[in-house]
C-alpha cells in the first residue's frame, strides 16, 4: 500500500514569492491534515479536512495561507506571499476516519525562504 | 489546554543499553497518548498509542510505554538499543480522541557502538 505522497520534497524561494505544496493521501482515507514543523519543534496542526470540508482551520494564518481539497482526495497548501518565518517542514497526514484511527504522515516538504 | 513536555532534547545511549525517553503531559480529560518516531528526511511513524484499557502498551521495534495517571507520564522504553533506533522521537497527547494531536518538542536519540 502506498503511503502519503508529498511534493515537492524541497523548495527554496525568495521572500514575498508564492509557493504551493501538494499532498496525495493514502487511498480511502477521508481525513487529511496539514502540519507545520519548525526546526527543533514538534509538528503543529494547520488545518484538518473531513472529505472536502475544512473542519478545523483555527491555526491556519488565513492572511497568507490557503488550502483546498478538491473532490476529497488530493490537497494543496499555498502560501502567498511567503515570509522568512515560514521556513519549516510542511507535513501532510491522513487517516481513514477521525473517530478512531491513526494518522499516517508523509515525508514532508522542506521550505526555505530567503 | 493540553500540552506535552519531553525532558531532554538529546539522549545518548550505547548499543545494547536501556532506552528511556521521558514524556509528561497535561490534559483536563483522560488523554489519548502517542509516541512517534521520525528518521532523517522522513515523515513521522507511529510507534505506539494509549487510548483506554491496559496501561502498559507495546509497540513496534521492541518499544513500550506505560501510562501513569498519577504521575501524568507516558515514558518510552526499550530494553536494548540498536544502532537503527537512532532517530527523533515525539510524544503527543490528544484530549479529543485522534482528532487534534499536540506534540512535544522531540527527543533525539543517539546510539553509539
Describe this structure in words.
The complex is a heterodimer of chains A (114) and B (113). Helices cover 0% and strands 48% of the residues of chain A. In chain A, strand 9 and strand 10 form a beta hairpin. Chain A is globular. The mean pLDDT of chain A is 92. Chain B is mostly beta strands and 113 residues long. In chain B, the strands form three sheets. In chain B, strands 2, 5, 6, 10, 11 and 12 form a six-stranded mixed beta sheet that branches. In chain B, strands 3-9-8-7 form a four-stranded antiparallel beta sheet, with no helix packed on it. A two-stranded antiparallel sheet of chain B has the order 1-4. In chain B, strand 5 and strand 6 form a beta hairpin. At the A-B interface, strand 5, strand 9 and strand 10 of A face strand 6 of B.
The rough form of chain B would be described as globular
Distance from first to last alpha carbon of chain A? 37 Å
Radius of gyration of chain A, taken over Cα atoms and rounded to an integer in Å: 13 Å
Strand content of chain B: over 45%
- The share of residues in helices of chain A is under 10%
* Main beta sheet of chain A: 7 strands, mixed
End-to-end C-alpha gap of chain B: 41 Å
Query: How would you classify the helix and strand content of chain B by structural class?
Result: mainly beta
Q: Which runs of chain A of at least 5 residues are low in confidence (pLDDT < 50)?
A: none
| Total of helices of chain A | 0
- Percent helix of chain B, as a range, is under 10%
Please tally the β strands of chain B and state the result: 12
Mean pLDDT over the residues of chain A: 92
Find the count of extended strands of chain A (DSSP E, 2+ residues): 11
Mean pLDDT of chain B: 92
Q: Would you list the SSEs of chain A in sequence order as H and E? A: EEEEEEEEEEE
Which pair of chains forms the biggest interface, and how many residues does each contribute?
Answer: A-B, 25 and 22 residues
**Order of helix and strand elements from N to C terminus of chain B:** EEEEEEEEEEEE
As residue ranges, the low-confidence spans of chain B are none
Approximately how much beta-strand content do the residues of chain A carry? over 45%
What characteristic shape of chain A results from the CA principal axes?
Answer: globular
Amino acid at each position: 500500500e502506498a503511503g502519503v505522497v508529498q511534493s515537492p520534497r524541497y523548495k527554496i524561494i525568495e521572500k514575498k514569492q508564492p509557493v504551493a505544496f501538494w499532498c496525495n493521501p493514502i487511498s480511502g482515507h477521508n481525513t487529511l491534515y496539514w502540519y507545520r514543523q519548525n526546526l527543533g519543534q514538534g509538528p503543529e496542526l494547520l488545518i484538518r479536512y473531513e472529505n472536502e470540508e475544512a473542519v478545523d482551520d483555527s491555526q491556519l494564518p488565513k492572511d497568507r495561507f490557503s488550502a483546498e481539497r478538491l473532490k476529497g482526495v488530493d490537497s494543496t497548501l499555498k502560501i502567498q506571499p511567503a515570509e522568512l518565518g515560514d521556513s519549516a517542514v510542511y507535513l501532510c497526514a491522513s487517516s481513514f476516519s477521525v473517530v478512531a484511527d491513526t494518522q499516517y504522515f508523509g515525508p514532508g516538504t522542506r521550505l526555505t525562504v530567503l | 489546554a493540553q500540552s506535552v513536555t519531553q525532558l531532554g532534547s538529546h539522549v545518548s545511549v550505547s548499543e545494547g543499553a536501556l532506552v528511556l525517553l521521558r514524556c509528561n503531559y497535561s490534559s483536563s480529560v483522560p488523554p489519548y497518548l502517542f509516541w512517534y518516531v521520525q528518521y532523517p528526511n522522513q515523515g513521522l511513524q507511529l510507534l505506539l498509542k494509549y487510548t483506554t484499557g491496559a496501561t502498559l502498551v507495546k509497540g513496534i521495534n521492541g518499544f513500550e510505554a506505560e501510562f501513569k495517571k498519577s504521575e501524568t507520564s507516558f515514558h518510552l522504553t526499550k530494553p536494548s538499543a540498536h544502532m537503527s533506533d537512532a532517530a527523533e522521537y515525539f510524544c503527543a497527547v490528544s484530549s479529543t480522541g485522534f482528532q487534534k494531536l499536540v506534540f512535544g518538542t522531540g527527543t533525539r536519540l543517539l546510539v553509539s557502538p
